[in-house]
TrEMBL record, chain A:
GO MF term set: DNA binding; DNA-binding transcription factor activity
SUPFAM superfamilies in UniProt: Winged helix' DNA-binding domain
Species whose genome carries this gene: Promicromonospora citrea
Top-rank lineage group of the source organism: Bacteria
One Pfam family linked to the record: GntR
Name this polypeptide is given: GntR family transcriptional regulator
Domain HTH gntR-type as annotated: residue spans: 6-74
UniProtKB/TrEMBL annotation, chain B:
GO molecular function list: ATP binding; ATP hydrolysis activity
Ranges where the ABC transporter domain occurs: 8-252
Gene3D superfamilies: P-loop containing nucleotide triphosphate hydrolases
Protein name as it appears in the record: ABC transporter
One Pfam family linked to the record: ABC_tran
InterPro entries according to UniProt: AAA+_ATPase, ABC_transporter-like_ATP-bd, P-loop_NTPase
PROSITE patterns attached to this UniProt entry: ABC_TRANSPORTER_2
Amino acid sequence: MFDGPEPIYVQIAQMIRAQVLAGELKEEEQVMSTTQFATTFRINPATAQKAFAGLVDEGLLYKRRGLGMFVAPGARERLLDEHRKSYFEDVLKPALQQADILGISTDDVVAYVLGADGTRTTTEES
Amino acid sequence: MTTAPFGARLDDVVVRFGRSHRMLPTGTVVRDEAGTGLAGASLTIRPGTITGVLGRNGAGKTTMLSLLAAFTRPTSGTVVVGPEGAQEDPWENPWITSGTQLVRESGDLMNDEKLAVSLRYYADVRPCWSAETAERLLDLFEVDVRKNPSALSRGKRSAVGATIGLASRAPLTIFDEVYLGMDAPTRYAFYDELLADYAEHPRTILLSSHLVEEVERLFEDVVVIDRGRVLIAETAEQMRARGVSLTGSKDAVERLVGARRELHRQQLGATVQVTLEGGLDDDEAAAARSAGVEVGSVPLQDLFVRLTDPRSVRP
């Protein structure tokens, strides 16, 4: 856990963002306290604190005095929006570049996206 | 009773041991210096942090920790310990020393009395002592207080040391290689208890260990002592940013390395892994990505090994 090249607090923030995005952490749901987080992952509480403070600044989490941290309303929608914007540039573009290197034709990629049984259709149509 | 966490400062501290005098056949008396513990160490310990103290064998870690607990005195230089704004020389200073708990490898227990007697002693001298914590931890570590310390295994004696440190709730709690002899489950139980107790009762904790990999994430600050001097004293995050590892084809990695200082290099066929000093900026990271070079973090353990390598150039 948290073995990436970024500082640990950045990785913790990413993990929480991913949980919100996946719907594992619901809006208005309480997130683990700094102490719980620190003892669960065996990290310094200040590191967890720094990750949470960043997420509060982003407006993804908010504090309720004496109760703890909660997922802000609209947090998931905001993340979805951001990730949709960067999806093509950050995810699809490198994947298509790799397809070029491997000599996979655009037709093959399109065929895969649509699925052999045609189950995957564009959202605009549905 | 609660006291504000203690900080500490060392200013150009030198500690020499074992001065002896010897007479030459000519009748002249010369003084021998048997050893140097610290050779001009300066550093600040931030109050309220968990600070890791790293260093190779004989680097001066134990000497430094003993100075803070007033177990030794500097030959020259100054040491001050105490809460922010009220730091004093700890030597023969009851107010400071009662707030400082140094847990040494030896355990500092009364070997010819039952363990319960030693524990009562610590309960008396530590104003913030938590009997409840002590009892709970001894139970967790399965230590029988009716035994004499000498009848306990190495690992159990270390567990007693860990218990004394945690139960002391001292504003400055120092664990000097307290893990020795503890098995892995006991060590992890100790780390968990340390974090939980620290979160609930903020204070300053110093932890020296050779098992860097196991403890590096517990640290907010890190001090690296090397040959009697302070090589590094900064946040763990800053220290992690001192290195980056690049893995990929030799040519691609070589282009990224440029004129930077290499801390380590490993070659596996056509693939090289290079540990570089410093980090990558956004442009360099993008260049690495497009060249298929994997950028990784360097564990503190590796940085510590590389930066204190006597064969490497001094930073």
